[in-house]
C-alpha cells in the first residue's frame, strides 16, 4: 500500500472518532458556555442534567459535550427570616440586618427563625 493512502485512512478515522465525541461547538454554543466557564473559573458550583426530566447533579470539572442538554450555575439558596411577635403576628425579612431592626427593640415573646432553601 502507498504511504499517503495509509495516512489519509488514519486521518479520516481520527476525524470520524473526534466527530463522534461531539467536541466541536458553534459560535452560539460558545456564547452559552461563556457564563458557565466564567462562573467555574471563579469557583462557583456547576451543575449538569442529561435530560429535562432528570435532576441536577453537581459536576466538579465541566466537560463540553454537544449531546448534553444542559449545564447551569448552581443557584444560591433562598433565605428568609421569620420574626414571630408575642401577639401572634409575624414578619418575613430577607436578611439579618432587616431582622435586627425589629428585634433590637426588646419585644416580649418575639422569636426569630432563619429558613434556608435546600437546592
Structure keywords:
single chain, about 120 residues, alpha+beta, 2 domains, three-stranded antiparallel β-sheet, 3 helices
Strand order of the largest sheet: 2-1-3
What is the alpha-carbon Rg in Å?
A: 26 Å
Rounded mean pLDDT score: 76
Q: Number of helical runs?
A: 3
What sequence of helices (H) and strands (E) makes up the elements? HHEEEEEHE
Describe this structure in words.
The chain is of the alpha+beta class and 119 residues long. The protein folds into two domains: 3-73, no CATH class; 79-116. The protein has helices at 3-21, 27-41, 96-103, and strands spanning 46-49, 57-59, 70-73, 79-84, 90-93, 111-116. A three-stranded antiparallel β-sheet has the order 2-1-3, covered by helices on one side. A three-stranded antiparallel β-sheet has the order 5-4-6, covered by helices on one side. The longest helix has 19 residues, at 3-21. It is rod-shaped, with a radius of gyration of 26 Å. The model has no long low-confidence stretch (mean pLDDT 76).
Topology:
Layout: H1 3-21, H2 27-41, E1 46-49, E2 57-59, E3 70-73, E4 79-84, E5 90-93, H3 96-103, E6 111-116
Antiparallel strand pairs: 1-2, 1-3, 4-5, 4-6
A few lines on this structure:
The chain is of the alpha+beta class. It is 35% helix and 23% strand.
Amino acid at each position: 500500500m502507498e504511504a499517503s493512502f495509509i495516512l489519509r485512512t488514519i486521518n479520516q478515522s481520527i476525524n470520524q472518532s473526534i466527530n463522534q465525541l461531539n467536541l466541536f461547538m458553534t459560535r452560539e454554543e460558545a456564547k452559552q458556555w461563556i457564563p458557565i466557564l466564567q462562573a467555574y473559573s471563579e469557583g462557583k458550583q456547576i451543575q449538569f442534567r442529561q435530560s429535562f426530566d432528570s435532576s441536577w447533579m453537581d459536576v466538579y470539572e465541566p466537560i463540553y459535550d454537544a449531546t448534553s442538554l444542559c449545564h447551569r450555575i448552581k443557584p444560591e439558596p433562598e433565605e428568609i427570616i421569620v420574626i414571630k411577635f408575642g401577639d401572634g403576628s409575624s414578619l418575613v425579612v430577607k436578611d439579618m440586618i432587616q431582622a435586627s431592626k425589629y428585634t433590637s427593640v426588646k419585644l416580649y415573646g418575639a422569636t426569630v427563625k432563619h429558613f434556608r432553601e435546600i437546592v
